[in-house]
Each structure stands twice: as C-alpha cells, then as structure tokens.
Automatic annotation (TrEMBL):
It comes from the Bacteria. Its EC number is 2.7.13.3. This is histidine kinase. PANTHER family: SENSOR HISTIDINE KINASE GLRK, TWO-COMPONENT HISTIDINE KINASE. Residues 1-194 form the Histidine kinase domain. It comes from Pseudomonas amygdali pv. ulmi. Residues 221-331 form the Response regulatory domain.
Length: 338
C-alpha cells in the first residue's frame, strides 16, 4: 500500500527505481503466498461463482492496467484489443483467471509483446492471451495445468514462481463452467484461451466511460475498519488517491453509517470482528451496504463464520490492484442495477 502511494508521488529516476525494486520483491513474495492460498481455498470446495453483468473490455483493460509495472520489468508491451462486449460471469473469479494467464506470459515471454483479445462464436465469447515467447513442446501441453509443474529451461534461472498459475486457472474454469485451451509452438509462442463465456446485452443503465481506476472511484464513500494503524494509514491514503471519500475506524466504536462500501479487517483485536462491524453498519443504515472482508486467516474458516452473509472475502497480503478491481466491480454492479 505504501509503495503504491509513493509511486503516484513526484519522484526522481533513482527514487523511482528503488520503488520499482521494492515493488518487484514484494510482488514476487506476495504472488507466491497468494498462489498457495488460492489453491488451498479452491480445493476446499467452498468457492462459488456469483452472477455479475460485466463490461468485458473495461475488465480486461483494468487487469492490464494492474500489470503495468510487471510488464515494464519484463520488457513486455501489453496490449488489449478494443472490446465492447458484456458477459454474465463472476467478475472477480474471471479477472483472477486472466491475471494468472498474463503473469505466466510475462514470465515466459519476456521482451516480447503480449496481446489480449476477445472473439465471438455462437453467442459465446472467448478471451485469448497471445504471447510470442519460446513456446511449449507438445509433450508438455497435457500437464502444464498440473500444480507445481514447470518446464525447465536454462534461461529460466531468473523466473520466479513454483508452477501454480495455470493450475489455479484450471480450477477456476471448473467453478465458472468455462473451458481452457492452450495452443503452442516452439519458438513461435503460446495462446491461452478461455472459452464459453455467456454474452449478454449491456444493462439499461451503463456507467459513463471514464478514465480507469481513479476517476471511476471518485466520490465513493468508503468506511475502512482496520486495527493496525500503519495499514489503516496506508490503505486510507491509497483510497483517497483513487478519489474515494474515506472514513476510518480501528474498532466497532464510532462507525459511520453513511457509506457506499465497507472494507474491514476480519481480526480487529477486540471483542467485535470485521463481520460484526459490517452487520452493525447495515443494521443502522437499513440496507445491505456492499462489503469486503480482508483476512490473513484461512478463507474457509471466515466463510463458515459468515453464515451466508453477502460479503466478499479477500486474502492477505492484499494487492492494491486487487482492492481497486473489487471496488470497481461493486460500484459497477450498483450503477447497472435499475
């Protein structure tokens, strides 16, 4: 969170390079932890898909935007073909699939362009990520989605990761009821495609087109509950840079009821936890305020404690890009509901 705030501040070339190095190290460690947590959570069988109406072009552009720094480190030009299609899908799970596919392409096709495109066939849409890397030999293709499976090359000594990205993609495809296809040729590149997305008409009320991320969140009132003062300060500063109006609290005391979204840590070190805070705000406000719970616990344990409450759960360490994507998804759902 702090490095994300630093990046949007005036910095010299040397300072920006230092922030890049810190970001890259944190990104690699965070990605490893998140991959292991994702595998564990998906294997628990307690992840289910929600039905969102999603502007596919905006979602893909946002995921590409999240990968700007990683693409720069890899020397990759990351491009998204223009798309005005809408789909019915769980926005967060689909974005996670695309994120893992892009991460894989950036690792194994450095210094080559990566293109993201959408095709239509028989009322269904497909998302393809094309790279021009070294490619995958035919004998490896059946196993590339197996967990911890990596194809070793001499040039891979600097490639981070343990081989979980495409395994996560495969598990998510089963939850979303879509298909994954991988086509590759040695020295010609690889194409990973998500097939079978349900195309729908655009909602009657469409969010006006604005710049990505920051302007779309301008004026959104966020109630942020976090007992760690440093995390609270960093997250609040980041939300404010995105244009949000942030009201903070470190416990269940003095919570605002005038907010559009709640972001709460699950463990607050007090009698009440984050879920209690959410229920308190909803009861006082008289409506189900959209909410996110952030936790370092096992997600399935938190889900069990929620007893069906309409709250999204995000795992720590939380990436700024992941937080922004979830906030944008919540805002778009609210704006597109008649």
């Amino acid at each position: 969170m702090f490095t994300a705030c630093l990046r949007s501040s005036p910095l010299g070339d040397y300072e920006r390079q230092l922030v890049d190095n810190i970001d890259r190290s944190l990104h690699n460690v965070s990605q490893l932890f998140r991959s292991i947590l994702d595998i564990y959570t998906l294997d628990s069988g307690k992840v289910s898909a929600k039905s969102d109406v999603v502007n596919l072009g905006d979602m893909l552009n946002e995921v590409a935007h999240q990968n700007t720094a990683a693409a720069r480190w890899a020397g990759v030009e990351l491009r998204v073909r223009p798309c005005r299609r809408w789909v019915r899908v769980d926005a967060t799970l689909l974005a996670t699939m695309v994120q893992n596919i892009i991460s894989n392409a950036l690792k194994y096709a450095p210094d080559h362009p990566v293109l993201i495109g959408v095709r239509s066939h028989a009322g269904r849409l497909s998302i393809s990520v094309y790279d021009r890397g070294r490619g995958i030999a035919a004998e490896h293709l059946p196993r590339v989605c197996d967990e911890f499976y990596r194809i070793r090359h001499v040039r891979d000594k600097d490639v981070e990761g343990v081989g979980l990205g495409l395994s996560i993609v495969k598990r998510l495809s089963q939850i979303l009821n879509v298909q994954i296809a991988i086509a590759s040729r040695i020295d010609r590149g690889t194409t990973v495609t998500i097939h079978g997305l349900e195309e729908v008409s655009a909602p009657v009320r469409v969010v006006p087109k604005k710049a990505l991320g920051e302007s779309l969140l301008k004026g959104v009132r966020v109630c942020l509950v976090e007992d760690d003062q440093n995390v609270l300060m960093a997250t609040a500063a980041l939300l404010e840079r995105w244009g949000c109006e942030v009201q903070t609290a470190r416990s269940a005391e003095g919570l605002t009821t005038h907010c559009d979204i709640i972001v709460a840590d699950y463990d607050l070190g007090t009698v009440a936890n984050g879920l209690d805070c959410i229920e308190s705000i909803r009861a006082a406000g008289g409506w189900d305020v959209p909410a996110l719970i952030v936790t370092g616990r096992e997600v399935e344990v938190v889900l069990e404690s929620m007893q069906g409450a309409e709250v999204s759960v995000l795992s720590k360490p939380l990436r700024p890009s992941e937080l922004r994507l979830n906030l944008l998804s919540i805002r778009e759902r609210r704006m597109s509901t008649p």
